[in-house]
Design goal:
This protein is an alpha/beta fold. It is built from four helices and seven strands. Helix content is 26%, strand content 22%.
């Protein structure tokens, strides 16, 4: 299974500077990647540094959602869903507003994803 883990930015690039450049690395996605069983291929995509390739084959997309990245995260999720790729959303915003997030995902994770991520692969 090919899995994309995505850290969305907060919006468009203005004058060649990304609005979200000064933030920390998406450490939680690194942890999630390390918890993924080795039989699966994982790619991390940091939307602040590179454009998302919606044509890249993916069997599952997981997106971390902070309140300040909500609009972009939902846009990314909706695009993948339109082309038939299942999407899992997690993060603080999803935990705080799960019914809103569920409108943009096939599945959501409430609370720490690290505690449930491996269980996803037992199904």
């Amino acid at each position: 299974m090919k899995i994309l883990l995505i850290k969305p930015g907060i919006g468009d690039v203005i004058k060649k500077y990304n609005l979200d450049n000064g933030r920390m690395e998406p450490l939680s996605l690194g942890v999630i990647a390390s918890l993924t069983p080795p039989a699966h291929e994982v790619s991390l995509v940091d939307d602040r540094l590179e454009e998302i390739n919606y044509e890249e084959k993916a069997d599952l997309v997981a997106i971390t959602v902070d309140t300040y990245t909500t609009k972009k995260a939902y846009d990314i999720s909706d695009q993948f869903k339109r082309i038939g790729v299942p999407v899992v959303l997690g993060g603080i915003h999803v935990t705080l507003l799960p019914s809103e997030a569920k409108q943009h995902a096939d599945s959501i994770v409430i609370g720490d994803a690290e505690t449930v991520w491996e269980k996803l692969f037992l199904i």
